[in-house]
Design goal:
The chain contains ten helices and no strands. With about 200 residues, it is mainly alpha-helical. It has two domains: about 1-45, Orthogonal Bundle (Arc Repressor Mutant, subunit A); about 50-195, Tetracycline Repressor, domain 2 (Orthogonal Bundle). This is TetR family transcriptional regulator.
């Protein structure tokens, strides 16, 4: 097994064990054993279990961002772009249930320190802040603090994905898909009657 294969095996195993057993119940020795590597190899790649968790969190966020970024700024119509982005994000969650479960467990957890969560939100998912700013400049989205808007979007995403993972048959229903987007959109948008 090459060095990069060993690192990936550690990450894949950590993902499975953190979801199945929880962060605190998962030991570095159990990760190494399940990954088929020596414990020293794990520590060669990651200084600690916390460092492994941070790396895994950022890597999964980057994979998620890479999968959905192409949906942003496609049509020039903010609502349509937001809908395309929303459905792309939910499609990713349905296609990657283990990684989405990892998000459910750790996105808001104190296990992931705030600077790491901020890096994920502001750097990896920075294109979402750009869309929010664009909507605010156009007078379509409420002029609330960007960070608060991002966290609200993230919370709505976690709520919707939890619902669809728990009820996979509902994702195929157009009215449920549309409802999930409308809940998301109406939490941010300024009603047309109130726009300048």
């Amino acid at each position: 097994m090459s060095k990069s294969d060993k690192k990936q095996a550690i990450l894949d195993t950590a993902l499975s064990l953190f979801v199945a057993q929880g962060f605190h119940a998962t030991t570095t020795a159990s990760i190494a054993r399940e990954a088929g590597v020596a414990t020293g190899t794990l520590f060669h790649h990651f200084a600690s279990k916390d460092a492994l968790m941070d790396h895994l969190f950022l890597a999964v966020k980057q994979e998620f961002a890479d999968a959905i970024v192409g949906a942003a700024n496609q049509s020039g119509n903010l609502k349509q772009d937001a809908k395309t982005l929303w459905f792309s994000a939910l499609d990713w969650a349905i296609a990657h249930p283990l990684k989405q479960e990892f998000f459910q467990l750790y996105s808001m957890s104190p296990t992931i320190e705030q600077p790491v969560r901020a890096q994920a939100m502001n750097t990896i998912l920075g294109f979402i802040a750009n869309l929010i700013e664009q909507g605010q400049q156009q007078g379509i989205l409420a002029n609330y603090p960007i960070g608060l808007m991002q966290d609200n979007c993230h919370g709505q995403y976690l709520a919707a994905t939890r619902y669809f993972i728990d009820h996979p048959d509902k994702w195929q229903l157009d009215d449920h898909k549309e409802a999930s987007f409308n809940l998301f959109w109406h939490a941010m948008v300024i009603p047309i009657s109130s726009r300048k």
